[in-house]
Design goal:
Chain lengths: 428, 208
C-alpha cells in the first residue's frame, strides 16, 4: 500500500457509512484532501443492509452506487478499509492521529473472481446478515463492497483453508504474510461518523428475543427482504422456515425506556410503517400486519406515509406497549400480552412472527473514544467548542434517519472545511 | 374522617391531580405516566383489577376523584414490583398504589368489603395490642372475617395444617390466652401514639 500523505490541511473522516461517505465526498469535492477510514473490510455501513428507504420506498443500493462512483472519481479522497483510529492528540488545525490497519491477506491484484471463497471450507456467521446465515472464511463482504476485494477471515490463517485459498488464486492476490500496520498522520480536522448499532434485544427480558426464535429485530427483518439475503427475499419464520403472513411490530423496543435507552430512536416508527408495506408487497391481501405502539412519531412531511398505511385494511394499530411475550409451544407462535390504552382491553394475541423495532445506540460507547469528547447523556457526540475540530456526523451525533444523517454530514463537512481553510490562511 | 374528606374536596376544587401530588406517597410521579400500558400488562393480578394502574393514572388526571378513591383496584396490589421493574419512565407504581390506598383510607373512602383492606385492618389491630403479631388469633380472625358459618367451614378445611403446625411447634394454643408480647408494651404503645401525632400534624399541615 502506498504511503499515506496528510497534512494539517487534511480532513480525516472516521467511518464509511452513509454519513462518513457523504462528509468525505462533500469535503473532497470542495477540493479538500480527505482520508476516509473504515474499520470493516468495505464501506457502505448500515445503509447497505437496508432493503428499501422510507418514505419513497426506493432501493438504497442506487444511492450507494452513486456515492461509490463519486468516491472512485475523486482524486482528493483516499479510502482506507479495515482501519481504526487508535489514538488522537493535538488541537483543532493540528491533530496527530494513529491509525491501525488490520491485515486483509488479499492485495490489490484481487479481481473478486471468488475462486478463494469456493476453495475455502470453514464458515462463519455473516456479519452483513446479522448472523442469519453463514459466509465463507474467504469472502466478499457483500455484492456492492468497496474496495471490491475479497478478505480472509483471520481465524483461517495458519490452517489448511488459508493454503487452499492461496492455491486457488490465479492472480497472486493472496498474501498470508500480511500483518497489522500502524501509521501516524497529521490532520487539521476530524469528522467522526462511527454511526450506530442496534440495541442488544436480548436485554429486553420480557420480549424473549434470546428465547423465542420467531422474535426478531427490525434490522434482521430488513435482511430477509434482500433477494440475495439469507432467506432469498422471503419473509420466513426462523423456527420452521414457514412463510410468516401475520407479523407483529413492537415499537420502542429498547427506546424511550429508562431501563434501556432513554432517547427516542426516531427512525423506528417510520421503519416499521415501511416494513408493513413489505407484507402487502409479498403476500397481497394475505399479508397482515399489527403495529403495537405508544405513539406513532412519523415526523413532519412523512405523516402522509403513516396515513396511507392506516388506510390499508390489513394493517392494524394497537395503542399499547407490549408487556411480555410468551411462546405457544405447539405452533411456535409468539403470543403478545398487554393492555391497550384505547379502552383498557387485556389482550393475548398470537402472531406468526414478531419484529422488534429495535432502538439505536451509538456504536462507540462513552469511554472508548481515542480523545476526550463531550457527549450527551445518551452517549452521542455534542456540538461543543471543547471538542475543537472534532465534529460528529450522522448517527454518532444523534439518532437520525438517513435523510437527516446526510444533512448532518454535510454540516460537519462545512465545519471541517472552515477549520482547514483557517489553517491554510494562517500558513499562506 | 369524612370532615377531612370534605376539607380536601373544598381545598382542591376539582383539581384531583394536584390533590394526589400533595397528599399521596410518590403522587408527584402520576403526571409522568405516558400511558404505554406496560404496568397493566405486567400485573399478575391484572385481570382482577377493576381499573389497572395505567387507567387509574388517567382517571386521576381526568379528575375522577370518587371513582379512584372508592375503587378496590389499588387494594389488589401484592407488591410484586413487576410494574416498577418494567415502567419505561421509572414510576414507582407499587408505592403509588399503596399511597392511594392509604389516602383513601384516611379520607374514609376505602371500600369496606375489599378483602385486602379488611385483612390489613385485622393485621393492624392484632399487631398494636402487644407489639407482636398473634398468628393464631390473626389466622382465626381471617377465617371468621366473613361471618361465623364461613369461619367454621374454613377452620375445618385448614384443620390438618393447624394440627401439623401444633405438632411441629410452629403454633401454640396458649396464644389464645393473651399471647406473647414485645418487652416493653407500654413503650411500644407510646411510640405509636407519638407517630400518630406526628402523622396528624403532617396531614394537618397539608390539609389547611
Amino acid at each position: 500500500m502506498s504511503e499515506v500523505i496528510a497534512t494539517n490541511q487534511t480532513i480525516l473522516v472516521v467511518g464509511g457509512g452513509i454519513s462518513g461517505m457523504t462528509a468525505a465526498l462533500e469535503a473532497a469535492e470542495c477540493g479538500k484532501q480527505v482520508i476516509l477510514v473504515e474499520k470493516n473490510p468495505s464501506i457502505g455501513g448500515r445503509v447497505s443492509q437496508l432493503y428499501k428507504y422510507f418514505p419513497k420506498l426506493c432501493h438504497p443500493k442506487c444511492g450507494l452506487e452513486i456515492n461509490l462512483k463519486r468516491i472512485k472519481a475523486n482524486r482528493n479522497l483516499r479510502v482506507m478499509a479495515m482501519t481504526e483510529v487508535s489514538a488522537i492528540s493535538g488541537d483543532a488545525g493540528n491533530y496527530s492521529v494513529t491509525l491501525k490497519t488490520a491485515p486483509r491477506y488479499v492485495n490489490e491484484n484481487c479481481t473478486s473472481c471468488g475462486a478463494c471463497g469456493d476453495a475455502v471450507e470453514a464458515e462463519f456467521d455473516s456479519e452483513y446478515n446479522y448472523g442469519m446465515n453463514k459466509r465463507k472464511g474467504a469472502y466478499l463482504p457483500f455484492n456492492q463492497a468497496y474496495p471490491e476485494r475479497y478478505v480472509l477471515d483471520p481465524a483461517i490463517i495458519g490452517t489448511d483453508d488459508a493454503e487452499k485459498a492461496k492455491a486457488a488464486c490465479k492472480y497472486g492476490a493472496i498474501d498470508l504474510d500480511m500483518g497489522e500496520s500502524e501509521s501516524t498522520i497529521t490532520v487539521g480536522a476530524i469528522i467522526w461518523a462511527t454511526g450506530w448499532k442496534p440495541y442488544d434485544a436480548g436485554k429486553i427480558q420480557p420480549y424473549g428475543y434470546d428465547r423465542f426464535q420467531n422474535v426478531i429485530t427490525s434490522v434482521e427483518f430488513e435482511r430477509m427482504l434482500d433477494p440475495h439475503g439469507p432467506t432469498g427475499g422471503k419473509i420466513l419464520r426462523p423456527s420452521d422456515g414457514k412463510e410468516a403472513k401475520d407479523v407483529a411490530f413492537i415499537q420502542c423496543a429498547g427506546s424511550r425506556d429508562k431501563n434501556h435507552l432513554a432517547h427516542c430512536s426516531r427512525i423506528c416508527c417510520m421503519a416499521s410503517l415501511k416494513q408493513t408495506t413489505y407484507l402487502r408487497e409479498q403476500y397481497g391481501d394475505d399479508g397482515k400486519g399489527t403495529v403495537y405502539y405508544i405513539d406513532i412519531r412519523a415526523i413532519d412531511r412523512i405523516d402522509d406515509f403513516y396515513q396511507n398505511v392506516q388506510k390499508d385494511p390489513n394493517i392494524s394499530f394497537v395503542k399499547s406497549k407490549v408487556a411480555s411475550i410468551t411462546e405457544d409451544k405447539e405452533t411456535g407462535n409468539p403470543v403478545l400480552h398487554g393492555v391497550d390504552t384505547e379502552g383498557y382491553h387485556r389482550y393475548s394475541n398470537p402472531h406468526e412472527l414478531v419484529v422488534l423495532a429495535i432502538g439505536m445506540e451509538p456504536s462507540v460507547p462513552a469511554g472508548d473514544f481515542p480523545i476526550e469528547v463531550v457527549l450527551n447523556e445518551e452517549g452521542f457526540v455534542e456540538l461543543d467548542e471543547a471538542n475543537g475540530a472534532f465534529f460528529a456526523a450522522g448517527c454518532s451525533s444523534d439518532a437520525l434517519d438517513v435523510n437527516r444523517a446526510v444533512q448532518s454530514a454535510t454540516a460537519s463537512a462545512l465545519r471541517a472545511i472552515q477549520v482547514v481553510n483557517k489553517v491554510a490562511g494562517a500558513e499562506g | 374522617m369524612s370532615n377531612y374528606n370534605q376539607e380536601m374536596i373544598e381545598k382542591y376544587r376539582g383539581n384531583f391531580l394536584k390533590e394526589v401530588q400533595d397528599n399521596v406517597e410518590e403522587g408527584d410521579w402520576v403526571k409522568m405516566c405516558m400511558q404505554c400500558g406496560v404496568c397493566s400488562g405486567s400485573c399478575p393480578l391484572g385481570p382482577h383489577w377493576e381499573h389497572p394502574p395505567q387507567e387509574i393514572f388517567m382517571m386521576i388526571r381526568a379528575g375522577k376523584r370518587e371513582e379512584v378513591l372508592e375503587s378496590t383496584s389499588m387494594w389488589m396490589c401484592t407488591s410484586c414490583y413487576n410494574c416498577i421493574a418494567r415502567c419505561p419512565r421509572g414510576l414507582p407504581i407499587t408505592h403509588i398504589m399503596h399511597g392511594l390506598a392509604t389516602y383513601s383510607k384516611r379520607l374514609g373512602l376505602a371500600p369496606q368489603q375489599q378483602p385486602t383492606a379488611k385483612f390489613a385492618q385485622l393485621f393492624w389491630d392484632n399487631l398494636v395490642k402487644k407489639g407482636r403479631v398473634n398468628e393464631l388469633k390473626l389466622g382465626l380472625s381471617l377465617y371468621f372475617m366473613n361471618g361465623f358459618g364461613e369461619g367454621i367451614k374454613t377452620s375445618l378445611k385448614m384443620k390438618d395444617i393447624g394440627l401439623n403446625m401444633l405438632k411441629a411447634g410452629r403454633m401454640t394454643p396458649m396464644e389464645m390466652l393473651g399471647g406473647h408480647s414485645c418487652k416493653d408494651t407500654k413503650g411500644f404503645q407510646a411510640m405509636l401514639k407519638k407517630a400518630q401525632e406526628l402523622e396528624e400534624a403532617r396531614i394537618g399541615k397539608h390539609g389547611n
